[in-house]
Write a structure and sequence with these properties.
The protein is of the alpha/beta class and about 325 residues long. The protein folds into two domains: about 120 residues, NAD(P)-binding Rossmann-like Domain (Rossmann fold); about 160 residues, Dihydrodipicolinate Reductase, domain 2 (2-Layer Sandwich), CATH 3.30.360.10. About 25% of the residues lie in helices and about 25% in strands. The strands form two sheets. The chain has a seven-stranded mixed β-sheet. α1 packs across α10 and α5 runs parallel beside α7. The longest helix is centred in the C-terminal third of the chain and has 16 residues. The model has no long low-confidence stretch (mean pLDDT about 95). The chain binds NADP nicotinamide-adenine-dinucleotide phosphate.
């Protein structure tokens, strides 16, 4: 199967190429970049030298030839590609935010008009896979909402309030340098940002309601000096208390068939480079603390995007995603 990666010079695009090297049914045949067109991909991704022979190209959307395209481009860029690919029978996994929210919510949260809206399935496979088997399109969730939602989902319908406190690595901001990601501002430092106004809160709240929860969600992210990973501590406030034994049973039952959710102490290093989400839960009665660890570029982006492609095409969900983490 031919795979096109639009935005292949970015962090998510690079990880898509890396992970797809081991996919039994898929081969990356097109890697796009406007700035690096004509250059071998190892000029940007030196770790991939010798694996593909690919060079970056900069085709018009109408010239893309593939069975499936991953859009690893910023929000608003993706919406220029989607229809042109779908019309030509190319299936699409969109890693951007363009199709994650209802149109009015997207326009309010992102402050731009949506020029080509349609309602799309939201791709957390553990929660929604039956909604997009065999579809042409899936919207890949944000990195924070993935780790946060998986941490809280089993208890969502028992909660009246869920407070997500996340620590993220710097690659979450993409490869464009900024003052926020400048090394002296990040290294040896930790700070909160967008304390009450991060765009991903809208996705988190939507997911709580999709899970049948009446809980109000709150979210504060923090930037920590690591390259990859998101650790989310979800404070789940309950009207009726639940014991440690009860919450452990609820989580075990909820995720009993899920390969990529492991119920164990969450550590960023243990999930680095993988599609796993590690979760541990502890109850003090009316407050349950559920902490999750994901790789923002793995389960938070490219890993989950490949898992979603596998769902759409009916492949084994683990294809291309069988590698273990890197510890220490
Ligand atoms: N980083 C993460 O942890 C993460 C997690 C979840 C979701 N995402 C989402 O995944 C997408 C990619 O993120 P990233 O971190 O990989 O970003 P990035 O490192 O900034 O890379 C963006 C890529 O898109 C290309 N691009 C930028 N503007 C474009 C345009 N108008 N048309 C076509 N190509 C364009 C860039 O190459 P050229 O400029 O050379 O064309 C580059 O290859 C974003 O929507 C992001 O929100 C990222």
């Amino acid at each position: 199967m031919k795979v096109a990666i639009v935005g292949a010079s970015g962090y998510a695009g690079g990880d898509l190429i890396r992970l797809l090297l081991t996919h039994p049914h898929a081969e990356v045949t097109l890697a796009t970049s406007r700035k690096h067109a004509g250059q071998p991909i190892e000029t940007v991704h030196p770790h991939l030298k010798g694996f593909t022979g690919l060079s970056f190209e900069n085709p018009e959307p109408e010239q893309i030839d593939a069975d499936v395209a991953f859009l690893a481009v910023p929000h608003t860029a993706a919406m220029n590609y989607v229809r042109k690919l779908l019309d030509r029978g190319i299936r699409v996994v969109d890693l951007s935010a363009d199709y994650r929210l209802p149109k009015d919510v997207f326009e309010r949260v992102y402050g731009v008009p949506h020029i080509d809206y349609f309602e799309a399935p939201y791709g957390i496979p553990e929660l929604h896979r039956n909604e997009y088997r065999n579809t042409m399109f899936v919207s890949n969730p944000g990195c924070f909402p993935t780790g946060a939602t998986l941490a809280a989902a089993p208890l969502a319908r028992y909660a009246h309030t869920v407070i997500y406190d996340s620590k993220t690595g710097v690659s979450g901001a993409g490869d464009n340098p900024s003052a926020t990601t400048h090394y002296p501002n990040v290294g040896d430092n930790v700070n909160p940002y967008k304390w009450t106004s991060h765009r991903h809160l809208a996705e988190m709240r939507l997911e709580l309601s999709r899970l049948g929860s009446k809980a109000t969600g709150y979210f504060t992210p923090h930037l920590v000096p690591v390259n990859r990973g998101i650790l989310t501590t979800a404070h789940i406030l309950l009207s009726e208390p639940l014991s440690q034994q009860e919450v452990e049973r609820i989580y075990r039952d909820y995720y009993k068939d899920e390969y990529f959710v492991r119920l164990q102490f969450p550590m960023l290093a243990a999930v680095r480079g993988t599609n796993f989400c590690d979760i541990r839960v502890e109850s003090e009665g009316h407050r349950v603390v559920a902490a999750s660890a994901i790789d923002n570029l793995g389960k938070g982006a490219s890993g989950q995007a490949i898992q979603n492609m596998n769902v759409m095409f009916g492949f084994d969900e683990r294809d291309g995603l069988r590698g273990a983490g890197v510890l220490p």
